[in-house]
Amino acid sequence: MSELPAYKTIIVTKIDNSAGLKVGQIQFNRPDVLNALNIELMGELLDALQKFDKDGETGCIIITGSAKAFAAGADIKEMATQSAIDMHIRDQFAVWDKIRKIKKPVIAAVSGFALGGGCELSMACDMIVAAESAKFGQPEIKLGVIPGAGGTQRLTRAIGKARAMEMILTGRMYSAREMYEAGLVSRLADDEVFIEEAVALAKEIASMPPIALQMAKDSILKAFDTTIEGGLEYERKAFYLLFASEDMKEGMGAFVEKRKPKWKGK
Questions:
Q1: Which of 87, 100, 177, 241, by CA, is between 20 and 30 Å from 195?
Q2: For the segment 173-187, what is each residue's pLDDT rounded down to a tens digit?
Q3: Which CATH architecture has domain 210-257?
Q4: Could you tell me which of 45, 49, 32, 56 has the C-alpha nearest to residue 92?
């Protein structure tokens, strides 16, 4: 990914530092509609994520919006006149399934509104770093529908049944601090430095061995799909498999020799 592609609805950059740690950043760029998630934006987001996922230089990915809004929801104008059959044929949520298959860790850096699809997209990421100004909510009930991109499932798993019920059935907004205390947000930061906080976390993650990162992420996600017995079996197989990697030999060798490891991603 030597040349970053140009998109219409997102801005893509690669963040580097003196240690050679590279972080991919994707910023939504539809300020006139508070970064509403239309079909074009979601398609470009998936394309950028997949390119970073295949890029050997990139260790972690950040998705962010603007100071006013991470994403204020789906683009209602695209859906308001659609029928049930139209929605079935369009299958607009298929792209979300592909986003879930991104192997590298993905951080949502959220400020302003993260509502509806914006809240669901932040939850589809692996971690959320939120500015104090961030507001989370699933207001679909006020439009006569329910969350359709994973909100009823991911939110319930993240904050529990009772809180998810209240949040979705009332459609009201919750502060970043409320969501941090509920366990949805992993880090809370001042508005002036939330991006720096997300970048620092991303660089720390990017400094770890790439294959082990992917195996760890995959194993954690498996916890939501299976029983504890099935999850433990999956984790154990992933653990054993990593003993076939060059990075495992390098990591343990460096520990014994008391030096800094040099990861190869192999």
A1: 100
A2: 999 999 999 999 999
A3: Orthogonal Bundle (1.10)
A4: 45
Contact 217, 105 (CB under 8 A): yes
Catalytic one among 48, 71, 74, 124? 74
Going from N- to C-terminal start, the domains of the chain cover 10-206, 210-257
pLDDT tens, 95-144?
888 999 999 999 999 999 999 999 999 999 999 999 999 999 999 999 99
Q: What is the architecture of the domain spanning 10-206?
A: Alpha-Beta Complex (3.90)
Mark whether 24 is an active-site residue: no
**Tokens linked to 229:** 């017995």
Which of these is catalytic: 69, 112, 116, 120?
120
- Answer yes or no: 200 catalytic: no
Q: What is the pTM of this model?
A: 0.91
Closest CA to 71 of 13, 41, 114: 114
- Told to judge if 244 belongs to the known catalytic residues of this protein, a careful annotator would answer no
H or E element in which residue 136 lies: strand 135-137
Given 59, 117, 118, 151, which residue is catalytic? 117
Is 40 marked active-site?
A: no
